[in-house]
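This section describes the prediction task in plain terms. A model, or a person checking by hand, is given the sequence of a single protein chain and must write out its three-dimensional structure as a string of tokens. No templates, partner chains or ligands are provided. The sample shown here is typical of the held-out split.
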Amino acid sequence: MKEIILFYPRPWPGQTMSGRLPYSLLIIVAYLQNFGLKVRIIDERTVDNLRFTIGSLDPNAILLFGISSFTGIQIRNGVNIATLLKHHYPQIPIVWGGWHPTALPDQTLKHPLVDIIVRGQGEVTLKHLALALENGKDLTSIEGISYKTNDTIIHNPDRDLSYDMTKLSMPFEAVDVEKYIYVKPFADNSSRTLGIITSLGCPNNCGFCQVAGVYKRRTLFRNMEHILNEIDFLVKKYHVNSFTIDDDNFFVSHKRVRQFCEALIDRHYSISWDAGVSVNILLKNYDDDFLKLIKASGCKQLYIGAESGSDAVLEMINKNASVSQTYEFVEKMKKVGIRASISSMVGLPNTPDTEMVDTMNMILKCRDLNPDFDFRIFYYTPYPSTFLYTEALKAGMKEPDSLEQWSEHTLRRFKAPWVKKTNRNQIKYFYYYYYPYSGSIEKNRSAKQPIDKLIEWIDSTLFENALFRALARLRVKHRFYKFPLDAFFAIQGKRLKSLYGRLVHKNIDAFYEFDH
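The expected answer:
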């Protein structure tokens, strides 16, 4: 049997390890191995010399080369590897899968580096595709794929989402787990953190999110005993002391969460964990006693997609939540002793400029309610096959017409034609100046080399001084953000650090993405 290679392109710019196992590929490996198929994962983030790795492949031993891709940077890196592969081994079929090819199969297949697309959840489809290629059969009967025949694009019928994940255990032997362990940059700063997956899908239908379209608002659950055994394995073999649950919505099942928390307590683990939750689900189904159980099991942080400080915007994006619920969540987390974290976005189409101010004010009020509070903010980025994507096109967005153009379509770099540059700057200033300087600036002095220490000293001394902090506090107190000369000068330290990191260490940080 020939080998299936699954390639995971680097999903973020720069060289820094993002700390997440390629679970989408591990799930495929777990499934395909049940049928005797040979599968190997190549993760761009963990390979020292990717060009050498590709150049040393035996083309006669490879059945297909699969590339996973989400809209943005991952597409660029997928195109790069496909270019290299076609140059060395033009006979190997290149199969693309993931969110982006599923959303735009026609446009994706027009690219010369794409031979076949696996749409949607790919485990079962890829099995049938691999067996057909191995036995020289045609592809006409394989549900869930799109392909080209004599430059004609063919879309086979969708595959029904009836996949049973309960029998799968993660094949950790398929990757070098040690390379994915990282220091958690929030909550308790655990030294050996790893992401895990317990389910896929979400019952919500938010207008900006692709999850509902792929999973049809269903949730595919893994077996909880398998998950607990995997945690036991990772704790004992790799000394992991913290887990981030990377589910689309971990708290969908009240029963599973209780089973998880009680098991962690019974096993006397000295570990911490964090997860995301929909605020409407949390407030409806989890009372204070349950939250205390969650806390007792080691939960250090819960994260919600608050999205906006405007109820009108939340209704427009079909969030099924309110701003008051965000405040209630933040207060509940303070009461129970779990860190509250929210994600928000600004610059949606067909919204007034005041929407940005509403969101900034919401974030500031959350901090007032609960000082142990963390947030992220992004520019709204339209993704294909979502309701708001159509609205973005109506509002003047020009749709990218190639994979190369889509590779620049990222959360921080997307420039909506309906958002003024001054408003983009206002959000950048808020995130890097008004908010941190008006509160307690976290001092992260991690530099070891003399030049690195000098850059940190310049930023701290010249651009984080008492004058700038006083001005930021005044601006936030009076909500006055006009004439932002102080903001412009204060962030020069961040710009210097970002430029230095990019040129010297080949790392592209969040500030560079915001500032681009």
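For orientation: The chain has three domains: 3-155, 181-400, 420-516.
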